[in-house]
Design goal:
Oligomer: single chain
Number of domains: 1
Number of strands: 4
Length: about 270
């Protein structure tokens, strides 16, 4: 059992070390969400106006951008598997005294750690957007980020086990990530779109991550404007029930367990 956890730590540490050493990856991972926030925020804030009382478009979009950043980083954590396969290092990992389940968990933890680091740095923007941070809010946010990043990293690892080139992996991930982002409620309330689009959005696991993070960040502003957060019209409604943070987290956790199990199964079939 000690060797199992040690193997997980070694794999996770290697992922962290690689991220720190790749400065271009660090810069691009921060620049991309900032670009979205600045371009979309500056371009649509005046046009869209307030999403509800006390919440303008930038405030509404900011929690979604945080979730988007975490998901993109965690889903691309599978890139290291493809890189290792191309350069022959994957064979050395597979013959090492580490279980394949431990390798997948280590990859997921390493990807989640890098995603959380990016999410923490982007918190520095909150005061400039008129969002006050509290200790409880930050703790709730970090727990949600950890759950979301671990869950979605399963997608990246699963896809990586099926890819043989970095170019192919990047293409597939782009095809997956952009629909996930644009259909998750990052830029619009999910319940205010066409019924057919609502169905697609509510099948999207990222939708519940965005909703949970948004409720954590905007709860105070909404309570000041309305007596009940649900009265503000934000959130995701499933079968007539408006989801709360804990319910969103439960859905993410269940999906994460399924996705990571699929990644472990697929990686265990590697030869």
């Amino acid at each position: 059992m000690v060797e199992f956890y040690r193997g997980i730590w070694v794999v996770a540490y290697r992922e962290l070390l690689r991220f720190i050493q790749e400065r271009s990856r660090m810069i691009s991972s921060f620049a991309f969400p900032l670009m979205f926030l600045i371009v979309f925020g500056a371009g649509f804030n005046r046009i869209v106006g307030t999403m509800t009382e006390g919440v303008d478009f930038i405030k509404f979009m900011y929690p979604g951008i945080l979730s988007m950043t975490v998901v993109m980083s965690s889903m691309f954590s599978g890139m290291s598997i493809v890189w290792d396969r191309e350069f022959g290092f994957l064979k050395e990992i597979l013959v090492a005294p580490i279980s394949r389940t431990g390798i997948v968990i280590g990859k997921a933890i390493g990807g989640s750690a890098t995603a959380m680091a990016q999410g923490i740095i982007l918190l520095l923007l909150a005061p400039f957007l008129g969002i006050s941070l509290t200790f409880i809010l930050v703790i709730k946010y970090l727990l949600l980020v950890l759950l979301l990043s671990l869950s979605l990293s399963g997608v990246g690892i699963f896809v990586a086990t099926r890819m043989r080139s970095q170019q192919g992996f990047q293409m597939v991930m782009q095809l997956l990530i952009f629909p996930l982002i644009f259909l998750s409620g990052v830029f619009f309330p999910v319940d205010n779109v066409s019924p057919w689009l609502q169905v697609i959005a509510k099948v999207n696991p990222l939708t519940y991550g965005v909703d949970a993070v948004r409720q954590v960040f905007l709860e105070k502003d909404l309570l000041l404007a309305t007596d009940n957060v649900a009265d503000a019209g934000l959130g995701v409604t499933v079968f007539g029930h408006r989801m709360g943070v804990l319910e969103d987290a439960l859905i993410i956790g269940i999906l994460g367990f399924v996705l990571l199990s699929a990644a472990v199964w697929s990686f265990s079939r590697q030869e």
